Amino acid sequence: MNFGITGVAGFIGSNLADALLSAGHEVVGIDNLSMGSIRNIEQNLDRSDFKFHQIDVRDLAAMGEAFSNADRIVHLAAYKIPRYGNAIDTLEINSQGSRNVLELCRDGNRRLIMASTSDIYGKNLNLPFSETSDSVLGPTTIPRWSYAVSKLFDEHMAFAYNSSYGVPVTILRFFGSYGPRQHLSWWGGPQSVFIAACINGEAMEIHGDGQQTRSFTYIADLIDGIVRASLYDAEPATVFNLGNAQEVTILELARLVHELCGRSGQANIKMVPYKTLSGNYEDVMRRIPDITRARTVLGFEPKVELREGLHPTIKWQRLAMGLVEAQPA
Known about the structure:
The protein has 329 residues and is of the alpha/beta class. The chain contains nine helices and 13 strands.
């Protein structure tokens, strides 16, 4: 089967390309390299069953040409939470990019596998979150909610394309992925910046009091779920949570990273009050998935516990940070 992947040079996209190629599929990937890195896919650039095009998802014509032979498309390219207050890219790129891939899938009714986010559940206090849980978001005056809103819009548009045009769609809501090739900034998640701080002997900055909880899904488990969902055709339009249900506070995560980085003594932690963040930032205090549906329908079962997954992640990040430092100015 021939898969098209948007955001192929990113953390998830590059790992997905590796998995699909290893399973005997062909992959055509696009990325504008604004957040992805060519290093993530360099191992595949000489393969005859892999093609890469530097294309922005807002360029419908170029995408259409690149994905002309794709049997189905996995749409991963997106802009995340505008942590520093700039929401325009998040809203424009996510809505236009998703509309474009849906338009491409109208040609021959190719299935679209669309990445969404656990952030759409927002401040809902009823946990764990199932696929039918309500979205409880903050006011439009707070930019951080623009990411969740953009993904909610994408989901509604995907279901509308199925209803109006018959486009088969599978929506995947990701919960806190981490592992080798994760982005080294906040874009990659708190574990990424905690690891970097520990390696550099700096304080790990925690927003709020650190008692907010998350679930963290090792990349190999997430990729397994994406592949399973990508090959699932029994429902014309469907949605799955993909994540690890192990709940951990951000403070516990920081202390675990400190330990696994080989640091002695107490963890060097700096608490950053929410009021000091721009954009009147609001956090989500708990975010845990109910994966019963993915487990029952897809056979998805995360296997890697957080401590186990952080070992190769830290090892990779040491190497990645060394490569960055070794680059000429």
